[in-house]
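Re: duplicated header lines in exported structure tokens

Our pipeline writes sequence and tokens for each protein into one text file. With two proteins the header for the second block appears twice in some exports. Here is an export where it did not happen, for reference. First protein block:
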Amino acid sequence: MAEALAAERVALRAAAAAPKPVPIPVPLPPAAAPAPVSANVLAPVLAPAAPAARTVRPPRAPLKGATASVPGAPRRSSVQILLLLVGVTLVSVAAIFFITVAWIYAGHEARSAIIALFTVAALVTAGVLRRKRLVATAEGIGALVVVLVLLDAWALRQNDLFGLAAADGAAYWASLW
């Protein structure tokens, strides 16, 4: 029994003599930092227990060829971009068919008004989406607006509005670009 007590004492002395881990102070963000306290307000209080030691790891170095990303930037997958591209393409095709149907069934003024209203509506929609930070969708609708503007130019020439049918075809289309 005496040997067990002696071994226990040796173990306790070795544990007391071993170096204790020193906690590394971690700076708090400015919003979470405690407010400064006046020296004459301090009263003798019991010291709080030491916080548990935290291991602070240095930041990892970026991999070769990796680019730093903006912390708040949304990440898009290629599937999202593909779906957006397919959607804008299908809406563009639908716009062409709609204009064709309007061309068959409506008069000159109605055709021009319908096409112009759809173009302006798509342009306003792109602006609203941009302000709502839906940039990729706004760019897709912007591409649709380009298709609609070209269809507007074609309709203006075909309806002979403002005497555009008499203009040289190559010069007319070159002026749009």
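Second protein block, exported in the same file:
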Amino acid sequence: MFPFVGRGSCCSSAPSSSSPRRSCSSRGNRRTWRSKPTRCPCGSSPLHFSFTFVFPLQRFLQCPLKNSVIAYVSAAALVVHALVTWVCVSKLQFGLIGTMLTLDFLWWVSVLGLFGYVTCGGCPDTWKGFSMEAFTGL
């Protein structure tokens, strides 16, 4: 149920966050400040969609008390994020777009790390693999 709720809320909030230019102009902001915020909501869409995967994975790992795995994956993602942010923002001069892309990248690194742990043998007692039984009774 949780992935569907996340996807629904992400899709419902996308139209309202895709046009901040209109809301900035109605408040009387200068034109130079209005042009930059319009790029951010489009860059944060992958971030919002990653929440629909990372939250159920974290809940799944918290049930058998695998909280240390979440901490290790988060620490590794933080190191990767610091390195990628430094490269994209400082060296390649991507600026705000580079910051948004690295933030998206960080969350997907976390998703892939947690998913890899769950599916590659980290949870042998609780994860039995993908099957059609998951769709029975829907």
